Amino acid sequence: MEHKTLISKLAADKNHKKLGKIVDIVEERDRKTRKKQTYAVVFVHRFLRKDVAVLIEIEKLIKAEGSYAVFDILKDDFDQEVRETSFLV
Question: Residue 11's domain spans which residues?
Answer without folding.
Answer: 3-88
